[in-house]
Each structure stands twice: as C-alpha cells, then as structure tokens.
C-alpha cells in the first residue's frame, strides 16, 4: 500500500515538473520528450517519467507518436479559440457561483488581488500582472466550489498557455484586461451573480476577439 502510494506521488511530481516546463516555454511546441533525458534532468525513474507523460497526454499537453515517443503538443489558434469559447461558459458559471457564496475571507483575498493587480499593471510589471490575473481566475474558481468546472478549466488553461502569453503582448490588451478583471472582482465583492457572470463573459469575449486576429 505504501509502495503504491509513493510511486503515485513520484509520478505526479514528475508530471508537475514537466507540465511547468511546457507552460513556461522551457519545452517548446513539437519538442521531442525523451524519457532518458527527462529522467536525468529531474532525477526520476524512467517508469515515473513514462507515467507522467501518459498523464500529460491525457491532459492534451503531450502527444505520443507511434514508434517515435512523445513530443510537446502544439495547440493551434483555432483550437485556442474553441478552448476560450468553452472557458466562457465554465468561468461564467464559476463567477456566478462565487458571487453567491463568497465569505469575508474570500472578499479579503479578492481585494488584495485587485490592489496588487492594478499596482502591477500601473508599474508596467508584466510578469507580476500576468501571474496576478491568473490568480484572479483561479481564486474565483476556487471560491465557486464547483469542483468539476475547476478540474476542466485547469486542463483548458494548460493547453492554451502559449496563446495566453501572446494575448498579454497584444497592443492595448493589457489596459482592457485590467478593467475587465477588476469588474469581475467588483461584481463578486458586491455579491451580484448576474453582474459577475456578465463581467466574466465580457472579459472572455475580449480574449476571443484578440485570438481571432492572431496568425
């Protein structure tokens, strides 16, 4: 029992490390993922690496090629648009539920995130701002308590991470994004489910609009 649990934990640890390497661009789209190299890099067993790649394949981050091993999956712009369309429905649901159930601790957390996000945007700290806006989405999802939506959204977020970075660099998008995220937070703080759902839809409609201009 203990051995099985330990093996499962090791597999998950390696999956987390490889996932992070993909999301941060350390592993590029179409890059071959060689089990021996990953094993050496992270000090993991070949079995743990193999299982981790299977996990990431099920998440859509890795694709396995017959007789050629695995590589980082490249998500097209068309796929990213479809992902954003699905996110709109799920995240709007989470925003509505978050506004319905947010308690005082949740409100305090969102207030801190709002202040930090605005400060990062005003100071031109793009990395901090990108991390904070992601934190806003994740906080709203966690507050909602909708476990199924949270699991699905995490997978969708991972698959579209590269395009999210391109969105952040789109001219004028940063300022629009600050106002949109602030509106989502303000609606949850006001405990207004209709406004929270609407604000999330407006934000993701903006994301879709920019995605449709990308090559």
TrEMBL record:
<dbReference type="GO" id="GO:0003677">
    <property type="term" value="F:DNA binding"/>
</dbReference>
<dbReference type="InterPro" id="IPR011711">
    <property type="entry name" value="GntR_C"/>
</dbReference>
<dbReference type="InterPro" id="IPR000524">
    <property type="entry name" value="Tscrpt_reg_HTH_GntR"/>
</dbReference>
<protein>
    <submittedName>
        <fullName>GntR family transcriptional regulator</fullName>
    </submittedName>
</protein>
<keyword id="KW-0805">Transcription regulation</keyword>
<dbReference type="InterPro" id="IPR008920">
    <property type="entry name" value="TF_FadR/GntR_C"/>
</dbReference>
<feature type="domain" description="HTH gntR-type">
    <location>
        <begin position="8"/>
        <end position="75"/>
    </location>
</feature>
<dbReference type="InterPro" id="IPR036388">
    <property type="entry name" value="WH-like_DNA-bd_sf"/>
</dbReference>
<dbReference type="GO" id="GO:0003700">
    <property type="term" value="F:DNA-binding transcription factor activity"/>
</dbReference>
<keyword id="KW-0238">DNA-binding</keyword>
<dbReference type="InterPro" id="IPR036390">
    <property type="entry name" value="WH_DNA-bd_sf"/>
</dbReference>
<dbReference type="Pfam" id="PF00392">
    <property type="entry name" value="GntR"/>
</dbReference>
<dbReference type="Pfam" id="PF07729">
    <property type="entry name" value="FCD"/>
</dbReference>
<keyword id="KW-0804">Transcription</keyword>
């Amino acid at each position: 029992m203990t051995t099985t649990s330990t093996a499962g934990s090791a597999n998950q640890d390696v999956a987390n490390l490889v996932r992070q390497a993909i999301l941060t661009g350390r592993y590029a789209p179409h890059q071959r993922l060689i089990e021996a190299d990953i094993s050496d890099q992270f000090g993991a067993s070949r079995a743990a690496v193999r299982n981790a790649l299977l996990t990431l394949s099920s998440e859509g981050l890795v694709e396995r090629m017959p007789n050629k091993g695995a590589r980082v999956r490249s998500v097209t712009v068309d796929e990213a648009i479809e992902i954003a369309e699905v996110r709109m429905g799920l995240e709007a649901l989470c925003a509505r539920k978050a506004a319905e159930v947010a308690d005082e601790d949740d409100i305090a957390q969102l207030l801190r995130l709002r202040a930090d996000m605005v400060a990062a945007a005003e100071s031109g700290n793009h990395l901090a701002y990108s991390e904070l806006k992601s934190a806003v989405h994740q906080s709203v999802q966690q507050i909602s308590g909708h476990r199924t939506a949270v699991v699905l959204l995490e997978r969708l977020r991972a698959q579209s991470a590269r395009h999210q970075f391109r969105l952040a660099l789109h001219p004028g998008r940063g300022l629009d994004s600050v106002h949109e995220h602030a509106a989502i937070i303000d609606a949850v703080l006001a405990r207004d489910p209709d406004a929270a759902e609407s604000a999330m839809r407006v934000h993701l409609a903006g994301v879709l609009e920019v995605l449709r201009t990308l090559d």
